[in-house]
Amino acid sequence: MAKIAIMGYGTVGSGVYEVIKVNQNIVNTKAKEDIEIQYVLDSRDFPGDPVEEVLTHDFNDILNDDEVSVVVEVMGGVKPAYEFTKALLLKGKSVCTSNKELVAAHGAELIKIAEEKNINYLFEASVGGGIPILRPLISSITADKIQEIKGVLNGTTNYMLTKMSKEGLEYDDVLKDAQNKGYAERNPTADVEGYDACRKISILMSLALEAQVDYNDVMTEGITNITKTDIDYAKAMGKVIKLLGVGKTTKEGSWAFVAPFMIGEDSPLYMVNDVFNGICVTGNMLGQVMFYGRGAGKEATAAAVVSDVVDAIKHKNTHVIINWAEEKQELMPMDSFKTSRFVRVESYDKPKAKKAVSDIFGDVKFTELPELEDEFGFITPKAAEFETDRLLSSLLSCEGIENILGTLITEE
Ligand code: HSE
Known about the structure:
This protein is α/β, with parallel strands linked by helices. 37% of the residues lie in helices and 25% in strands.
């Protein structure tokens, strides 16, 4: 018998409870032990809910119960989850979590404690919800140098961008819809500003590089400035806009960032729509593999957490090695990253403006939207961001160019 506790009875916590109850025989068989939920920790009461039988408001009940060997931490946020997790690990209890804020901030330290105590700190559900992505990175893709990780890592913003694209709606309308459907929080900042995806790419790159990628170093831009006009331009070029988390390693160094991208049909991420996530990993031997599935949602995320619980029980007296050192991984400055950019130019003399663009950027493709008389778009050749910025500054002073209305990273 393996006794476990769940800390947090919100969406994911109640999902974990449900998955263990509904799939009881399956998880018990896989774990080769009967799993029993001994405690659920939450500050609230849930009158009428069977969880009341095991509900506690006191963390010490779990910490001091020697029979509890595995604890699920699905409280979210760093405080008090960090103190609780550390105390549990130090007491010799394995911890399984979906808490990306905590993993991104303290993952390396918590893994080290787990190693010292010969137990496990597992966090599959912290990236990609129900998609198995971390275990493949830790245990399967171990013969490769990982060159690139690129993914749609946030379900809420992907739902919003998909809806803007498919239904021609403006940002504010799709945000309201995403909130009504329960995808976006009342305060949607973490999703729409890209902070959630930033934590996730930091975790992925920390595992890929086996060192601490500090999320504060990850340049992060969300989707709040994306307009229907950007989407219309993308459509006119056969592209879509996706918020991507990107990590890249070359012999010069490593980059990690989050930004909206225009991507075309040739990208495997083109078809990742609605609340789904998709993550492409490129290894120097393996080539590209893609992971796709439900990146958010109660059941999918809970299933990933319970899989970790099963793994922790299976490895009761063994630490599963996760190479993520506490040493900081320096990142290259974003302006040295090579991209193409889609640029919107305001002009009252388009022939003159287009000539200036061609003089500076060479043979580029222009795109126009019939309803926008005084502007056009073009895509810059791939170059380091600082070089593109320099050329765009010189473009601004050319005859026929009124203004640069915006730019978006694009894949050419
Ligand atoms: N808010 C996150 C998303 C939840 O929309 O992807 C899963 O981490």
